Each structure stands twice: as C-alpha cells, then as structure tokens.
Amino acid sequence: METNPSVLIICGGGPAPGINTVIATVAKAFLKDGYRVLGVHHGYKGLFAEEPEIKEFDFDHADRIASRGGSTLIMARFKPKNSDFNTKIFEKENVKLLVTIGGDDTASTANRVTKFLDSQGISISNIHVPKTIDNDLPLPDRNPTFGFHSAKDEGVRIGNTVYEDARTARQWFVLSTMGRSAGHLAFGIATGCHFPMMIIPEMFNKTDISLKKIVNLMISSIIKRKIMGVEYGVSLISEGVFHVLDINEVVERGINFTYDDHGHPELGNVSKAHIFNLMLQQELHKLGISVKTRPVELGYELRCCRPIGFDLTLCSLLGLGVKKLYDEGISGCIVSANSTGDIKPLYLADFEKDGKIPPRLVDMDSQIAKLFFESMNFIKEKDYEQARDYVSNPEDYDLKKILNWT
After folding, report:
1. Domain segments of the chain as ranges
2. Torsion angle (degrees, nearest 10) of CA 194, 195, 200, 205
3. How confident is the model at residue 2, as a pLDDT?
C-alpha cells in the first residue's frame, strides 16, 4: 500500500537565522493539505545514507520552532558525487517534492539529484530556498538574503558592547566578522555601531590588497583619533579579505588554512581578529606608539540567533512561496520574493556567468558607501603635520592614498 505523498526537507551549508521559520512554514502549508513532511538530518550526506535520520513533522513541532534560531535539522557541508546517489528514501517515502535550504552549491546539487531520479523513472519536484548571512546572492531589486538582517542585528548588539568596553577602558579592539566574499555584514555592523574604521574586500577596488595596507588602515584610524583627543576605538575587518589576499603573502606570515569539501578556506578554524591584532601590535611597537589593543572574533555567535521580525516575515513568505510554486507545477527553481512581496521563481542560469554565480558586493559607488566611508576616522592631507608626531611618513597612512582613491 502506497504511503501518503511526502515533502522532504534538507538543509545544507552553515546556519542562518530564519531556517526554522522556513521549515515550519513549509511544514504547516503542506500538512494542512494532507502531505507528510519529513526532514532529513545531515544534509545530502544524510539523504543518501544507508539509514537516513528522519524527523517527521507534525503541526505542534512546526509551530514550536517557527521563531527559534538555529536549525531543527542538523546541517552539513557535504557535496555528494554522482556515485553517492540512490533512490531509497524517495521510493520508500513516496517523495513528491525535495525542498533544499542552503547556498548555490546546495541548489545545484538538487538539480543533479532530480535529474538522476528522473533517469531512474522517479519524477519529483525540487524547490530551493536561498540562505546566507553574507547577503551576497544577487537577488532581484537587491533584496536581502534571509538571515542577513538578524545576523547584522546581533552583530550590532555585540559590537556596541565591545565599543562600550573600548570607551570604558580607553583601548582599541580589532574585531573580525564573517563574510566570505562580500563585506555586507561588516559594513552593516560597523555603520550601525559608528566604528571609526571598517575594512572590507570591496574597498580595494582600485589597488591590490595586502596585509601591510590593512594594518596601515588601522593605524591611520588610531592616529587620527589621537589627533582628535580620542584614545579608544574599534577596527572591524571582514574575513573576506583573506579571499583576495596574495596566498604567498599569507603563507609567508605563517597563516595556514584547512579547506572544506567545496574548496573554500575554512576561515572558522583561525581567529582573524587575533592575526590582525598581533600584526597591529607589532607595527605599533616598531613605531613607538603606545596603544592597548585586544582581538574579538565575531563569528558563530551570529548564525543561530533568533530571527528578528524582518526575517520572520521574509522566511514565512518564502516558505509559503514554496507551496505556491509547487502547486503551480514549477520545479528546479529558487524561490524568491520581490520588493513588493510577490513570489517569483528564479533559476541558477539567471545568476550564472561562465558557470559560476558572481557574488553581490557592496557597491562602492553608491551614496550610502561614500557617505559612511567618508565619515570614518583616518588621516587626510590636512592632518599630516599633526600626524608627524606619531609617524614620519603620514602619507603612507592616508586611507585615500593607500586605496588609490585619489
């Protein structure tokens, strides 16, 4: 006897606030129409395991997790090979729809899975819900990816506490935050906290990036604030700078990385704040500038916080969008909501250039970027005379000259 049709949900990659909201909304939407809703732990690794760990949702559990942080389904960064594919769970559970929550790797793998199943005579739909706290997926209307605003909100809360410590103890902090290829999260936190210096990959749009330039930017802010009579501050650096640094320079500094299954450096295994703080202290010592600095790594604290109202609404809309697209017979797509809240299907081909999805970066030509970068504290030509009390070559610490913005 054939079981009731089921919807299968998996989560790939790392957490983002709002995952549970998506899961709960999808579950509620399909349960009321008589579907079974199954969640599989450990992403694609669990999906094709000999004995998959399955969580069957009922309304009560879905309702309880709707506003919680983290993910009720255990996540995993695993990219299966074609040889890993099998049909077991799809046949056994009478799966009609595979819902994937994750990044572009998770989405592209879902397309591969459905093509494999089709070759085995099993027809299912697949709909992908994109998530990343990095906000670097080029969605229409520059709409944010879910989880970004909640992670930014948590980052601002922690960042303001760190800044209060800097004011209280008259010291500097070197703060590092997530952002693999784009600086949206660092930009949002730094501007929300009024930090005097932020360093993101996009700043280096007219010059090569180097560790020396990064350290000099931090020193520029320290000296500028000394000129202003302010003996404290925070420099925030996006971890994404490591992705555009010359690998030889990184190796020469003794910085080593492990790599994940997708070939990305596992930045979570090293403290970027510690690395930059140590280099800053060494350079300040050489210059004879006495400043107390401390590192703070702002990383995993952001990924599993409770989603704020913005993401609760957005994630609920995306979950309902999954049901809408499925009912319309649309498959192999990414669910997206435009600026007016209308659900639209998108496809990987809509984003891809030369087979890859280019990240959405902070627009350095936008007015918001220009205004906030100009508001930071750094040495300008008018400060050179006073800056010579601290360094003999103040032009080497002029942000606009370092970045070739002049």
Report:
1. 6-146+307-351, 149-304+376-402
2. 70
3. 64
pLDDT at 43: 94
Token pair for residue 167? 């004011």
Ranges of the chain whose pLDDT falls below 50: none
Looking at domain 6-146+307-351, its CATH class is: alpha beta
User: With helix as H, strand as E and coil as C, how does 12-57 read?
Assistant: ECCCCCCHHHHHHHHHHHHHCCCCEEEEECCHHHHHCCCCCCEEEC
Local structure of residue 237 (DSSP, 8 states): E
Residues carrying an active site annotation = 134
Residue in the block written with tokens 């109202």: 309
Please give the helix or strand (H or E) that residue 130 lies within, else none: strand 125-130
Domains 6-146+307-351 and 149-304+376-402 share a fold: yes
DSSP class of residue 405? -
- For 348-391, write each residue's pLDDT tens digit: 888 877 767 888 999 999 999 999 999 999 999 999 999 999 99
Helix residue ranges per DSSP H, 305-394:
309-327, 348-351, 367-375, 384-387
Residue 27's identity, in one-letter code, is A
Distance of CA 375 to the CA centre of its chain: 25
CATH architecture of 149-304+376-402: 3-Layer(aba) Sandwich (3.40)
Sheet strands side by side (includes 233-238): 197-199, 233-238, 172-177, 293-298
pLDDT computed for residue 272 by the predictor: 87
